[in-house]
Predict the 3D structure of the following.
Amino acid sequence: MASMTLSFCSSLAAHCRICPKQCSSPTLSFSNNTNLSFLSVSSPKLSFSSSSPTYRLLPKSSESGAAVLDSVADPPEPEAVEIVETSAEEVSKREEVFAVVMVGSRQYIVFPGRFIYTQRLKGADVNDKIILNKVLLVGTRTSTYIGKPVVTDAAVHAVVEEQGKDSKVIVFKYKKKKNYRRKIGHRQPNTRIRITGITGYQDYPAVTLDS
Amino acid sequence: MTRIKRGYIARRRRTKIRLFASSFRGAHSRLTRTITQQKIRALFSAYRDRGRQKRDFRRLWITRINAVIRGKGIYYNYNRLIHNLYKRQLLLNRKILAQIAILNRNCLYMISNEILK
């Protein structure tokens, strides 16, 4: 899965902006993805229907923080080997799953530990826990859970990292020989979301390659 | 009217435009009048091509999905895959399918088997 994700990093057609986790994880070293941003034509207004990502406010857990501290504080002692091994196990256990989730009427392939940029989620502050319900596909190393159209009870847990804006595009309208030119700058608001985990897909009927 | 010398007003305006076109090739980054024209063309092309980008990428994804699916077997191609996708009410779009085709080809084969059944 690591090799496949590396090849995904280098492929130009990988069009969703999935960037690797910036924190120091000793076994992972993904290069940064410089992909083109896919400008969505849909309006940034979030409609609060049942299909939109619902989120609940939960107290911020320090579980991911503790894992990072374990891997960073690496004292030169025999204990260090155990810490590195457990974090490597956690990391390799985490790395096996991916999900396809629909946020803001766009679909993203999502890996735990990475972040994605979505349309601005109104009402979500920084460090809010978010649960994305519209999971269309969950894949593990050996099997996939294909949603028709949604994998029931599957949830992708994420944390809102930042509410920012895309880089500026200059909208320049011009008609030649008619003295018409208009120049407008535009920054689309976005939200950066870091994926913490994918749960709830185990009960769904899985599909494997042999069947 | 008081006498006004033009001074550096025009130069200031043109340096901004020159900065925009500083990476263009040949005379398009050196000659002032050409620079103003090329900046207009560049911005307008960007505007037009942002719309084109959406079309181009969809074509690319369709081509890639087609290529991978045609390897599956005879009489199986992109249009049948999409028809089956819609019949089975899957919501995956072409971007995701193309990425799965590259990342994890077995996954795409699993999907196509599932919707054929």
About this structure: Residues 1-76 of chain A have pLDDT under 50 and may be disordered. Residues 78-95 of chain A form the longest helix (18 residues). The first strand of chain A starts at residue 18 and ends at 19. The helical segments of chain A are 2-10, 63-72, 78-95.
